[in-house]
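Q: Please design a sequence for this.
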């Protein structure tokens, strides 16, 4: 079953919804999002670093090394704005804005892999985007700081998905995900004033917040990267992002995000139909 990309991408989608719910729960109280991001990346870096000796495959070339470096830089920017997004924006809204990845990824996949979606798959993608529009509603889409974080994160995570698919052809999963986190661990402290005191303060939440979120994310990353390697980038990413609409229900039902809850839940239902068409 672990060779079935559809099963893996569904697993990745469900675990990602849980992961984002945990992030929003931790960060909505005003906790230091950049310090949180650093601990989160450090845990992932350590875990996959320990696995590299057991999965050492890497087809070395300077081009491959540069691509892993690019992946790390994209994640460095992505995780910074992603944690800022969860700190500033309701989960049920940020999840919807992030669906714009479903527009970016087919464009990237077309130019890089030559993948072309069928008419049915384009209809599914259109329904996902329609769900985002309905839930966000035009008057909610004013350009404020929190919305900017979500828009930037949607673009950067779409780019990451495509690079990860390419990297999976020449490096093992632990090496790809080690490279994914390395530059964030090295450079995030440079974005922080008084980095050491902030990291020490944030350390008290590692067991209660970072470790559970990181454990769930490890499942997400394993399933997502493997599915991207086995299946078409546009379809797998479309299903993955569509399933993240589960986080809308989580925000409404468990985090008390009741503003426009009916339109958000209707949007989640429309997106679910889009997922079916993408399969």
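A: Design:
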């Amino acid at each position: 079953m672990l060779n079935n990309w559809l099963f893996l991408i569904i697993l990745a989608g469900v675990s990602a919804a849980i992961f984002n719910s945990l992030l929003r729960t931790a960060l909505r109280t005003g906790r230091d999002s950049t310090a949180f991001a650093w601990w989160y990346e450090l845990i992932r870096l350590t875990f996959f670093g320990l696995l590299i000796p057991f999965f050492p495959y890497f087809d070395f070339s300077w081009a491959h090394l540069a691509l892993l470096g690019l992946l790390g830089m994209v994640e460095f920017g992505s995780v910074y704005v992603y944690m800022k997004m969860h700190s500033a924006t309701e989960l049920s809204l940020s999840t919807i804005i992030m669906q714009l990845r479903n527009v970016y990824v087919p464009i990237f996949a077309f130019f890089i892999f030559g993948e072309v979606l069928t008419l049915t798959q384009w209809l599914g993608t259109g329904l996902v985007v329609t769900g985002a529009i309905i839930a966000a509603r035009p008057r909610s889409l004013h350009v404020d700081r929190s919305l900017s974080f979500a828009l930037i994160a949607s673009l950067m995570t779409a780019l990451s998905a495509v690079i990860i698919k390419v990297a999976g052809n020449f490096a093992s999963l632990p090496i790809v995900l080690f490279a994914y986190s390395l530059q964030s661990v090295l450079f995030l402290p440079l974005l922080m004033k008084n980095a050491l005191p902030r990291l020490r303060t944030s350390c008290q939440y590692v067991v209660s917040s970072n470790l559970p979120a990181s454990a769930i994310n490890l499942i997400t990353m394993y399933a997502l990267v493997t599915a991207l390697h086995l299946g078409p980038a546009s379809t797998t990413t479309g299903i993955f992002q569509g399933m993240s609409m589960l986080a809308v229900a989580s925000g409404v039902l468990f985090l008390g995000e009741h503003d426009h809850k009916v339109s958000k839940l209707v949007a989640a239902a429309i997106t679910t139909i889009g997922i079916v068409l993408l399969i």
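Q: Thanks. Anything notable?
A: The radius of gyration is 18 Å. Residues 12 and 220 are 4 Å apart (CA to CA).
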